[in-house]
Amino acid sequence: MKSKLLLAAGAAAMAGLIASGAQAAGVVNGNFSAGNTGFTSGYGYLAPAGPFTLYPEGRYTVDTNPNNVHNLWASYGDHTTGSGQMMIVNGATAPNKPVWAESLSGLSTSTNYFFSVWVASSYPTSPAMLDFSINGSSIGSLTASSTTGLWTQFYSTWNSGASTTASIALVNQNTASGGNDFTLDDIAFGTTRPGGVPEPASWALMIMGVGLAGAAIRRRRASAATA
Q1: Separation between Cα atoms, residue 55 and residue 13, nearest integer Å
Q2: How many structural domains compose the chain?
Q3: Which DSSP letter does residue 195 get?
Q4: Do 205 and 167 share a domain, yes or no?
Q5: What's the pLDDT tens digit per position in 121-130?
Q6: What SS3 state is found at 18?
Q7: Which domain holds residue 118?
Q8: What is the CATH number of the domain that holds 131?
Q9: CB-based contacts of 192-201 (< 8 A; 24+ apart in sequence)
Q10: 35 DSSP 8-state letter
Q11: pLDDT tens-digit series, residues 136-147
């Protein structure tokens, strides 16, 4: 009886993983490969126009290298491939301006969702201090590394509860005019962990269920052979 229950639990876990993959919500253009689309920002957008593009604070662009748009910023590639696009930001001096925001709908209730962002400083002084929120409630914060070009991941789990929507926002709490320059890439939200790794508990149930199913098949074969 216990084996049957465990087998059923394993099968349910596997079915849940398959279903979660089908219902997973995702941000649009999280790796910025489509340029300045799919998100909103309280910062002003400037199209890349050479090494003096991002001298004004509170502005951003989408390009392949911070040094392309600011002559004093470090030269490095995006997090995705090393040669793709990223969001490049000159931190604002006014507080509470969302750097990046997106609203998602069609979420499942009472479901764990995973949120991930990669952040790197383009200038070593006064690194950005980012606060991440969903539906107005903070889900954590991250101070960018003072080592330029070092991509650091922010990662958090959020349970939807009764909500079927998620308004995600990134706000830089650092308002320094000197330094406070950074890049964002590979923003992800969904029901599987970044990289497609499910929760350990689900893996354990799934593996146990598969193992018990295999054992049951072997027992049937042994019984048939001796019959």
Answers
A1: 51
A2: 2
A3: T
A4: no
A5: 999 999 999 9
A6: helix
A7: 25-190
A8: 2.60.120.260
A9: 192/17, 192/20, 192/21, 192/24, 192/114, 193/114, 194/114, 194/116, 194/153, 194/155, 198/17, 198/20, 199/112
A10: -
A11: 999 999 999 999
* 147 and 49 assigned to the same domain: yes
The values of phi and psi at residue 141, to 5°, are -145, 165
- The tens digit of pLDDT for each residue in 36-48 reads 999 999 999 999 9
Please report, for residues 47, 76, 83, 97, the alpha-carbon distance to residue 64 in angstroms, rounded to integers and kept in the order given. 12, 8, 6, 24
Q: What is the pLDDT, as a whole number, of residue 225?
A: 53
Joined tokens for residue 56: 């004004």
Say yes or no: 176 and 208 in one domain.
no
How high is the pLDDT of residue 211?
Answer: 54
Rounded CA separation 11/99 (Å):
42
Please tell me whether residues 126 and 144 are part of one structural domain.
yes
Q: What is the pLDDT of residues 162-193, one digit of tens each?
A: 999 999 999 999 999 999 999 999 999 999 88
- The residue written with tokens 């099968």 in the block is 11
| 16 vs 7: CA distance, rounded Å | 14
